[in-house]
């Protein structure tokens, strides 16, 4: 008879295993009823997050549609030489290689699609739930951050003069800001001297800093980078394959290409892209840590957190219940193994696996101990120890992974 606190801990672990284990036996309750109850439970858990995402997304759109608050001056000299000071604002307007709408969709849908497709192997609803919400968290937070700066601070795009089409003769009659013809040799002017009647085009050309494309791209793809690192265990307790390392950097390459493409059509200055990328990266790290147990710690960074259940870090460290779940890789104790069905169960094991497969797996692990066996000081959950004991525990634990 276990003490009360041990029985309670064991019961908690069994409940966690039942929720997380995709192979748990089904009950006699109809699937439709179970699914309906599950959806209602998800709504009770997540409705506040979904509502907050919708509110902040709507707020970002409203702020983005508002007029630029800052009044900036820019130099113009149409003198005898015809020189234009600051020629970096005199590039031709060539349109957008990637429109803002397309950039946002690419930054959100591709990471979400990869996370959803990976569940074919990972088979964890809460991992998919946290992964999708994490992408949205990062993009929405980063977007809200950058549109506030864009509206309050702003900045001229490299094609600003081509869109503005300034006329210095308007400086006297159109001088609502009282900042036309100021500064050194009176060469500084404001938007009052622009002759382009399209106010939306002028607003867009004055809101270059920071880059919204870069913010969304790095928010979505850096989150995907962190998620892939956790699922592939590229930096873990064993030497990973080179192709996993190369694949891991694919999201970073995609975000960099999307951001740097803005310099081809001169839609942004380099510092706009740099600051937007930084905002998106910070948002991605914050969102990932909010929804997963760690960012870089390979023992925990694959574990999706729940808002109604605290994670026991001491029990989760290299424990079978967590090493087998919510990861893509299948190596050295990580990831769920396929069970080998046999008409005759293995002698003494009672787990329904063939003696040959169990013996082969035990032999391999006798030569190369698993990470869990190499951690004698780790406290495992009671449910793991309750199944086996002594020397037999190591062999049966190995059979469970076959």
Automatic annotation (TrEMBL):
One of its GO terms (biological process) is phospholipid metabolic process. The chain crosses the membrane at residues 50-69, 96-120, 132-153, 212-230, 242-264, 270-291. SUPFAM superfamilies: Acid phosphatase/Vanadium-dependent haloperoxidase. GO terms for cellular component: membrane. Residues 133-288 form the Phosphatidic acid phosphatase type 2/haloperoxidase domain. Keywords: Membrane, Transmembrane, Transmembrane helix. It is a multi-pass membrane protein. Gene3D superfamilies: Phosphatidic acid phosphatase type 2/haloperoxidase. Residues 20-29 have a biased composition (Polar residues). It comes from the Eukaryota. It is found in: Membrane. Residues 1-31, 342-402 are annotated as: Disordered. Belongs to the PA-phosphatase related phosphoesterase family. This is Lipid phosphate phosphatase 1. It comes from Rhypophila decipiens.
